[in-house]
Amino acid sequence: MAHALVAEKHPLDDLIRRDRMPHIWCPGCGIGIVMRCYAQAILESGIPVERHVVVSGIGCTARVPGYMNLDSYHATHGRPIPFAIGIKLVKPELTVTVFSGDGDLAAIGGNHLIHAARRNVDIKVICINNFNYGMTGGQVGPTTPLGARTTTTPYGNPEHPFNLPYLLAAAGAVFVSRWTTLHVRQIKQDILYSFRKPGFTFIEVLAPCPVGFGRPNDIEDGVEEMRIYRRRSQLVYRVPEEVPWEALEVDLREERPIYVGRFVDREREVFQPIRLTSKG
Amino acid sequence: MKGRGVLTGVHFMHGDHACAEGAIAAGCRFFAGYPITPSTEIAERLAQRLPEVGGVFIQMEDEIASIVAVIGASAAGARAMTATSGPGFSLMMESIGLAAMMEIPCVIVDVQRGSPSTGLPTLPGQADVMQARWGSHGDYEIAAYAPWSPQEMFDLTILAFNVADRFRIPVMVMADEVVGHMVERVVIPPEDQIPRWERKRPRYPAGDGFRPFAIEDEDLVPPMAHAGEGYRVHFTGLTHDERGYPDMSAETHHRLVSRLVEKVRRNASQMIRYDAYALDDAKIVVISYGCTARSARRAVADARRMGIPAGLLRLISLWPFPADVVRELARQAEVFIVAEMNLGQMICEVERYVSQPVKGVFHAGGAMIPPDPILQAIREVAFHGSRAGGGKTSAG
């Protein structure tokens, strides 16, 4: 006879604000998967929890810090990166992660994103890309594919999307990778890797937004989007030797590869404020 | 001067530099800014000075990033500041509201220039004073000080840090191009005579149960835990409860916003500063601030020599506004005159508290209002009495 095993305690309990559950995310949303990967990476990082700080802007993904049992800051829309820079420069011993969405980081916060990468300031960015503004009900965003339907592009998106890995590689990030919410081990591994990698790191995670992006674009639900990821994800080891940077542009509606992998892993001098004395 | 925090001594100093030295003396160890005339010399001075004292200087990509980096630095425990002028001040407004909502102390220096828009980059204005009070959306209260000299650029910058930390609010130093670019005697006291009001800090070690926005004291100021101290705090610009958790209820919203406003109102007497000149028997009360108060003081002195009972109330704190002082003056004054380098901003605040006629001496900015139009206004009301009524005088 089988017995149900009820765990009294989950290893990640201490990292989640359980008193804030249930969360606000829709059924089929991919954000929680990535949050779990982040929590797991913190647990395995060997860095004391007290030294992890998480910062976000506004949007669905930006709610992650509110659910993490860490020092957490939910800043103005688009501004988590400068907020994180302020914290990091005052307390360099902290591991400061920005956990936010593509609209927050690449549209309203786009200027901060490219300048932080240019400076190579030691901030870890996890960017959930769900191809639309989810929180406000599925509007066109900076990553929405050309032609895709959203509530503000009812006739199809007339604009080209950002190709985020290409943008971040050009701007100077020392580590750039992309995965989908199907790639939970790779996401966790790359978050762990980024904690140890000095400088500006950027991990893009493609995530289903079945309500905001999926529904108007004929992706039935979150599971179907995961099937798309499984069918079409293609690992790339070297860009542009294997595929050109331009090929990293994503359009879920077309039967072409979604390239994933570590696209950039390089060394550049990390931004340090000028110091003439020891900190006094 | 290398390696010295407080440049004790008597100096002949530029106003913007005096502001920078005030920041250093106050213990400011983080500056993020973006170049903009006429405040740039503050950033330049701090780019040189902060590394000498172990502080951080960073030039950001814009003013939005600057104020947000300052708020982040303060969240990590630093005394942090930015400096700007009108266009940059406008860009900072949204996140000044964030600082008010998160109760993260910060200091914003606005060296005002002719405005609106790009206006007169190299010339003075005083037309951002209502923006300082009301510029971000929603109900919140802040403190703002108007220096009238390089000495006060030093002194009031220190006060701004103390008020910001003590009450966990954004504090503005509302300078103008005249005092920012003026070179004058500045006395910097010994380090142990620099006043220091500390941030209220948690009384208990980190552990379960710390509620970052729980009020333990009558001053309505919660103790502040910094990033990296183990308290695992959550800060959000959303309406939040005592734990810092978002709470979208009308009750929590009313309680939080009322406290943010009441926190400043209840403690206003500790923030208010003003200067009284020849007010004891004054029947004509001139109210002015910043560089315009220099002309107003001269006009009042000239009026006294003519036997006219005029006096000057110089606003040092624009916000909180010294309403009780103005109400008290209304018991003796026959008429008020407000002189300011805008087309009528603080005059609205004076009119709220007095029943007498209030006459304005205004100029849109670009050059100091000289003493003459203020004296002229004093003489008009002196010779025609309060029957002359309110009215606006252009100083141009």
From TrEMBL, chain A:
Keywords: Oxidoreductase. InterPro entries: 2-oxoacid:Fd_oxidoreductase (IPR051457), THDP-binding (IPR029061), TPP_enzyme_TPP-bd (IPR011766). The keyword Oxidoreductase applies. GO terms for molecular function: 2-oxoglutarate synthase activity; thiamine pyrophosphate binding. Signal peptide: none annotated. Its EC number is 1.2.7.3. One of its GO terms (biological process) is cellular respiration. This is 2-oxoglutarate oxidoreductase subunit KorB.
From TrEMBL, chain B:
GO terms for molecular function: 2-oxoglutarate synthase activity. SUPFAM superfamilies: Thiamin diphosphate-binding fold (THDP-binding), TK C-terminal domain-like. It comes from the Bacteria. It comes from Candidatus Thermoflexus japonica. The gene is korA_2. The keyword Coiled coil does not apply. InterPro entries: 2-oxoacid_oxidoreductase (IPR052368), PFOR_II (IPR033412), Pyrv_Fd/Flavodoxin_OxRdtase_N (IPR002880), THDP-binding (IPR029061), Transketo_C/PFOR_II (IPR009014). Residues 282-371 form the Pyruvate:ferredoxin oxidoreductase core domain. Its EC number is 1.2.7.3. Transmembrane segments: none annotated. This is 2-oxoglutarate oxidoreductase subunit KorA. The keyword Metal-binding does not apply. It is an enzyme of class 1 (oxidoreductase). Pfam families: PFOR_II (PF17147), POR_N (PF01855). Residues 21-257 form the Pyruvate flavodoxin/ferredoxin oxidoreductase pyrimidine binding domain. Keywords: Oxidoreductase.
